Task: inverse folding
């Protein structure tokens, strides 16, 4: 089994196929979308492939050290072009192909007009211990 | 073995040991050892007086540990310096333990953890689960808190306000893991109320009971947030509401108003309305006036603006927002709501979407997104 991180972006990923901001959907479409993600996670729990998932607030700040004794630099409100992560899900699957398959499924969550969003998700493998060989 | 009985007993047993001269951390360790032994012995041989049994065994454990410690350090010196027994055990005052656990030298997070551990008798694992942190992290937090208060004299009069803040923090943390922290906070506040006549303790207890009573209606089956006006009021727990109102009335009768009593009075007025339309907003505004006078808190003024909007119309509500920092949590959501009530759907939709972006929780974000979606859909139609 190998773990993968599925990253969902508010901004920064290439535009989704069905690219309509959520507050422009019908209220039932919002509900359907949330339910799809919930069901998806529940199903992966059932198959033993779910590890963790959290949603992130879009309110974020970049911070860096600015030398000893000085306050860190923060960049206040985000510029429009900044990559913005909306949340993640960690899955633990048998193969890379399975990870791709699941990411594709999650990307197909329904959006405006009840049609799949086809948003871009980022898929990142975790570093893992090398399997010990017995030779 | 009765788990809740044990949890009731833990604080007073720790209290006895500390009054006899044990250091707080050592007393807590000794009581935990005694609990382990109770788990082993009680099923076959239940004691007639569980508390007496625990005190005896915990004291023995404490002495064993003190002796081992002493002999490690001074092998040749015997154990004459055994702590002198303190006042009689009938002076049972776990209140002091509350004050110690909420000591101002502790950070709120540490005070909460220590209170749940020492007063609530929860295991470190349960507390860690409730706060969604690893057990090792919580263990560190608790032992650091114990070190912080280890030098604190136990006979100092505590600050009730600090204790109440800690208990309210526990209550508001909600419920995850296998312990319902809201219920736990109510249990601890009940205990505290039984041991002190402070009117704000009663005020906090009433507030918790009234909030807790409405909890089953506050979220839908899918975890969705249900606003007050749309809640199914038949789901409200009338027994808890009645108790909360009784506790509140007794506290108010003493005519020493505090912020928790004022908040409880507002909660009681909501609980009293059989439908949202029957809500007595005029009286609620009066209580918010009291609350603002008592606390001068911007959050109280924000909430007051909502009540004013219901009592005197949305324009009055918007006017009541004057002077408040727009960056205040939920400020944008309130402005959106008042604009919607005022008929300005375009502005309301835009503000709901904006409020969703800075929502403090996922259910709230989803709720605000739906509000924006609902208005935008109305505007298109």
Result:
């Amino acid at each position: 089994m190998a773990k993968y991180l599925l990253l969902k972006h508010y901004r920064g990923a290439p535009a989704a196929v069905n690219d309509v901001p959520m507050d422009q959907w019908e209220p039932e479409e919002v509900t359907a979308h949330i339910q799809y993600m919930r069901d998806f996670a529940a199903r992966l729990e059932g198959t033993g492939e779910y590890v963790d998932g959290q949603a992130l607030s879009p309110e974020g700040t970049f911070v860096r050290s600015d030398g000893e004794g000085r306050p860190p630099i923060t960049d206040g409100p985000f510029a429009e072009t900044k990559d913005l992560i909306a949340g993640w899900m960690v899955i633990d699957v048998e193969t890379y192909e399975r990870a791709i398959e699941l990411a594709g499924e999650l990307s197909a969550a329904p959006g405006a007009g009840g049609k799949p969003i086809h948003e871009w998700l980022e898929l990142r493998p975790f570093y893992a211990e090398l399997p010990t060989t017995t030779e | 073995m009765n788990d809740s009985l044990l949890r009731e007993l833990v604080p007073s047993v720790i209290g006895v040991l500390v009054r006899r001269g044990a250091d707080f951390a050592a007393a807590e360790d000794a009581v935990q050892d005694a609990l382990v032994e109770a788990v082993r012995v009680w099923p076959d041989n239940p004691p007639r007086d569980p508390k007496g049994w625990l005190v005896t065994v915990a004291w023995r454990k404490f002495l064993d540990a003190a002796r081992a410690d002493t002999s490690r350090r001074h092998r040749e010196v015997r154990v004459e310096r055994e702590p002198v027994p303190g006042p009689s055990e009938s002076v049972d005052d776990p209140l002091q333990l509350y004050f110690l656990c909420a000591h101002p030298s502790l950070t709120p997070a540490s005070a909460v953890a220590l209170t749940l551990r020492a007063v609530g008798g929860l295991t470190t694992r349960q507390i860690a689960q409730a706060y969604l942190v690893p057990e090792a992290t919580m263990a560190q937090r608790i032992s650091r808190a114990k070190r912080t208060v280890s030098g604190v004299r136990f006979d100092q009069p505590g600050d009730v306000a600090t204790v109440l803040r800690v208990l309210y923090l526990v209550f508001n943390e909600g419920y995850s893991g296998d312990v319902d922290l809201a219920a736990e906070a109510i249990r601890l506040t009940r205990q505290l109320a039984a041991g002190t006549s402070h009117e704000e303790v009663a005020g906090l207890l009433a507030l918790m009971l009234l909030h807790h009573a409405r909890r089953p209606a506050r979220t839908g089956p899918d975890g969705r947030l249900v606003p007050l006006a749309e809640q199914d009021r038949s789901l409200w727990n009338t027994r808890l509401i009645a108790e909360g109102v009784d506790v509140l009335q007794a506290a108010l009768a003493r005519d020493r108003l505090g912020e928790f009593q004022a908040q409880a009075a507002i909660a009681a007025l909501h609980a009293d309305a059989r439908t949202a339309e029957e809500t007595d907003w005029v009286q609620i505004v009066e209580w918010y006036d009291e609350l603002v006078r008592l606390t001068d808190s911007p959050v109280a003024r924000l909430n007051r603006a909502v009540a004013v909007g219901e009592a005197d119309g949305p324009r009055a509500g918007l006017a009541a927002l004057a002077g408040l920092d727009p960056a205040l949590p939920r400020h944008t959501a309130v402005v959106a709501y008042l604009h919607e009530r005022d008929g300005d759907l375009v502005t309301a939709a835009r503000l709901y979407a904006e409020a969703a972006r800075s929502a403090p929780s996922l259910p709230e974000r989803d709720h605000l997104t739906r509000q924006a979606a609902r208005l935008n859909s109305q505007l298109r139609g």
